Amino acid sequence: MTESVLDYMTRLGKGARAASRVLARATTAQKNIALQAAAEALDKARDELLAANRLDLENGRANGLDEAMLDRLALSTKRVDEMIEGLRQVATLPDPIGAIRDMRFMPSGIQVGKMRVPLGVVGIIYESRPNVTIDAASLCLKSGNATILRGGSEAIHSNRAIAVCIQQGLATAGLPAACVQVVETTDRAAVGALITMPDYVDVIVPRGGKGLIERISRDARVPVIKHLDGICHVYIDQAADLDKAIRIADNAKTQRFAPCNTMETLLVHEGIAAQVLPPLAQIYREKGVELRGCARTCTLLGNAVLAASEEDWATEYNAPILSIRLVDSLDEAITHINRYGSQHTDAIVTENFTDARRFLTEVDSSSVMVNASTRFADGFEFGLGAEIGISTDKLHARGPVGLEGLTSEKYVVFGDGHVRT
Amino acid sequence: MTESVLDYMTRLGKGARAASRVLARATTAQKNIALQAAAEALDKARDELLAANRLDLENGRANGLDEAMLDRLALSTKRVDEMIEGLRQVATLPDPIGAIRDMRFMPSGIQVGKMRVPLGVVGIIYESRPNVTIDAASLCLKSGNATILRGGSEAIHSNRAIAVCIQQGLATAGLPAACVQVVETTDRAAVGALITMPDYVDVIVPRGGKGLIERISRDARVPVIKHLDGICHVYIDQAADLDKAIRIADNAKTQRFAPCNTMETLLVHEGIAAQVLPPLAQIYREKGVELRGCARTCTLLGNAVLAASEEDWATEYNAPILSIRLVDSLDEAITHINRYGSQHTDAIVTENFTDARRFLTEVDSSSVMVNASTRFADGFEFGLGAEIGISTDKLHARGPVGLEGLTSEKYVVFGDGHVRT
């Protein structure tokens, strides 16, 4: 193209800002029609989608993408089914926009409350998985936000084919095409432009590896909803039920190794360690999990465990490796988690009410759990319908981010000619 | 001091982080005792406070501070009374921390809800007014946040004297001294350090001139809750009640000229302009307000009004100057506000339900009002008890920021040994 990348991105930004004004006042019915029509369009365009995806996969192989990357990139009939189902589910979620709450009379006579509103324009930067295009577009659309989607260059043909279907949905509902825009250039400068246009973009949601997210957070001139590390803990309290403890510590580590909500460090009260650790070590051994323990864990488990280094406590393995530490008290467990954790998801296994209550209050993480596996930390499991990401930040949205995280609230004031004196 | 500014600020940061853990689990009673005891200490230390303040005023005069600055800096018996009353009012506000809402059962059997928690450590950077020291410290304390306060160097003696009283309050309640720390150095490098310590500071709230806030927003490596411009509008709809329109347009401009929520541009529907503008122009003339109008306003009001330039629509005067524009429709008014406004506070005067509803929905500002003066946009008037500032950002807190804006919510999950399948 003869247009510069900056000019191109500015054009997208201006279009998105204008579309966001229309979308902010779109009816719930309009938004749902767009989502349902996009689902139908996807269903009818299966051949085109798979053909576009094959092109991406061929290019990916030619460019030497590894198998894990190719797997994330690949669309199957099942994955297209899931995208269609995802659109329909978002259509059935309650519309958060326009809800007014807590209109209360003040001593002055004015009535004050809050109205939920869209953020405006959301920029999404992501890698490989084409289904993110649907997840992001559908959540943003339902929450009344215009979206600019910048997927990985390796998925460009798939993303373009998906975008065509979304455009059909928007057209059916009479909504502007610029409500959802896919960045058509694979030039990396497009990302740099997208994250530095505060006039046209209200928030950036990066999804991908830690390197990408750190780079974007550092360079962005607009707010970023982000997720960095997932160093999650399970703490088996002295008052834990043995059966629940084993079940949860097993599931939190072994159900899947790669996700961010998988346990990386197991903390065990020394008063229950001799009962709970040997059977757990047996399970981990059978499932091929390498154990790295503190000195006391090593003494207890012998050669079933390697010695953990200081670095282990601060490491997100995303792999079949688990660090284990014995603690003398709940206080020590909480201190460990607040020091080494990533404020993502941490669980206590206990039958003791007071210990549970203290853990919930004092562990400073986006999701805190009692007697449940850390693997539940997920927008779908939390009832959000879907998620655009998980935030490990404290401001705005914390934990799994669904429709509400893509909105804000403004104050609404009703008067009858009231003036301030 | 022999310690470098960076070392000093790091020490404050570490102390604040440790204190924030204690404060996060402090009881409501403890926090209220600290606030009440600080109020008593202030009451007993009136002589010391006024002496310290006299020193600041003398230095300020010697350093050539202007009268407005000296006025903001000065403590009077009345202002000390207000600080004491402010502390007592914050003590009476409900404690937001620990509130759990919406615990709902999910299909998996887990129960999921949200718990309100402190942000952690709040850094406040402000100028001259010593009362901000009390407002900020009390709101942060009540919301369970440790605070690092960096007031203007011109108020250093006053702020230190106030800090002594706050420390007495903390000690009475058995809370760590580092819950509230006043930066003791007037070295400007202290600000640079404070806004670039994400490990120790969770959010920065700058209060002061636009230059200060822009500089801090640009350089900060931690989130900033900020307020930039206050270009507020009143739109007099065709269906306005004349009496209410005149009362509100008068009050919004003339009750005080300097505040951020004062009206800067008056928009008037052309169908009502001939009725409402002449009497309003008369009022403004009597109150010494300079009028700058669009061409049609000039035609209507003659030599009572100067010609407005394009720049006027985008200017926050903070002065007895008002720009006036006639519009042909509600749409034109909304478009003008969304284009030239600062997303702060905008009001419509109308008796028409549909126009009011559209204005509330489509004007993208932190406070939107029907038949009330923009001057009401204020934490106290909105029932927040007090405010730490007004946010013109969309993420996290929008509009007047009170206790809730200094908190976040984390997910809470209850299970009974639940694992993910």
Describe the protein in words:
2 copies of one chain form a homodimer. With 421 residues, chain A is α/β, with parallel strands linked by helices. Chain A has 2 domains: 237 residues, 3-Layer(aba) Sandwich (Aldehyde Dehydrogenase, Chain A, domain 1), CATH 3.40.605; 150 residues, 3-Layer(aba) Sandwich (Aldehyde Dehydrogenase, Chain A, domain 2). Helices cover 44% and strands 20% of the residues of chain A. Chain A has 15 helices and 16 strands. Chain A has a 7-stranded parallel β-sheet with strand order 10-9-11-8-7-12-13, sandwiched between helices. A 4-stranded parallel β-sheet of chain A has the order 5-4-3-6. A 3-stranded antiparallel β-sheet of chain A has the order 1-2-16, with no helix packed on it. In chain A, a hairpin with a 7-residue loop joins strand 14 and strand 15. In chain A, helix 10 packs across helix 11. The longest helix of chain A is centred in the first third of the chain and has 20 residues. The first copy, chain A, is globular and about 65 Å long. The N and C termini of chain A lie far apart (60 Å). At the A-B interface, strand 2, helix 10, helix 15, strand 13 and strand 16 of A face strand 2, helix 10, helix 14, strand 13 and strand 16 of B.
